[in-house]
Design goal:
This protein has one helix at residues 2-22; strands spanning 26-28, 32-36, 41-43, 46-48, 62-67, 70-74, 89-91, 102-104, 116-120, 126-128, 135-139, 146-151, 155-163, 171-174, 179-186, 192-200, 210-216, 222-228. By secondary structure, it is mainly β. It folds into two domains: 26-139, Immunoglobulins (Immunoglobulin-like), CATH 2.60.40.10; 146-228, Immunoglobulins (Immunoglobulin-like). Strand 15 and strand 16 form a beta hairpin. The chain is elongated and about 80 Å long. InterPro entries: Ig-like_dom, Ig-like_dom_sf, Ig-like_fold, Ig_sub. Residues 1-20 form the signal peptide.
Length: 231
């Protein structure tokens, strides 16, 4: 009986906290996202706002991503963006669903932020989520991919890399011919992993020689890993 009572209280507080979060001016974004210079980065974002006290009908939402007072992205189609952000940003979801996810392409060394989201609802209120900002950790030299090899009747090599650009994932190249396959998967809200596999029948001349995997990110940055094939 006591256990049931405790669980009931616990469930009440969990539901209360969730409902409380939905009734506040709050945006959920990562505090920092790593991104390779020249590539793109997706900034996941959802936002909440207090429920209007009256039965107001909200049917218009205007979204802005800002750095200080400068607008780098907006849901308004004909808005004139600063030259440094023109054709490099876009919203990836509908604001009516409380989703404010943004794409920043061709990441520059100056794109460190912090960036924050602002919502304007003409029938209700406007709010800048400056307390929920996100910064970009711009990586000038991407780390080498993770490379592993299994040798049996076939050589099975796997090369993988994490990245922030799902629309244009990294491209892989191998120093040996064979059957090459690749696939990408979402690791979390802002991180993806792309994996390339290489399969080929080994020859005697392949052993004690390096097998190289080179990854090329959006924007041209490259990194390479190498492993010696052993019998």
């Amino acid at each position: 009986m006591k256990l049931k009572l405790f669980l009931s209280f616990l469930m009440f507080f969990v539901i209360h906290d969730v409902q409380s979060a939905k009734s506040q001016w709050m945006a959920l974004v990562p505090s920092t996202i790593p991104a390779v210079q020249g590539s793109c980065v997706v900034i996941p974002c959802t936002y909440n706002y207090p429920r209007p006290s009256s039965k107001k009908i909200i049917n218009s939402w205007l979204g802005f991503w800002k750095k200080g007072n400068k607008v780098l992205a907006t849901s308004i189609q004909k808005w004139k963006l600063p030259v440094e952000y023109k054709k490099r940003t876009q919203f990836l979801a509908k604001l009516r669903t409380r989703n404010c996810t943004m794409l920043l392409d061709s990441v520059r060394s100056t794109d460190v932020g912090p960036f924050y989201f602002r919502i304007e609802m003409p029938q209700y209120k406007s709010f800048s989520y400056t307390q929920n900002s996100v910064s970009i950790d711009v990586i000038r030299n991407p780390p080498p991919p993770t490379l592993s090899v299994e040798v049996n009747d076939q050589v099975y090599a796997t090369c993988s890399v994490f990245h922030s650009c799902p629309s244009i994932p990294p491209q892989f190249s191998w120093s040996h011919t064979g059957v090459i396959k690749s696939q990408s998967k979402k690791v979390n809200a802002w991180n993806w992993q792309t994996v390339s596999t290489l399969t080929f029948p080994p020859l005697a001349t392949d052993f004690n020689k390096p097998l190289n995997c080179t990854v090329r990110h959006r924007g041209g940055k490259e990194a390479q890993s190498s492993i010696i094939l052993l019998i």
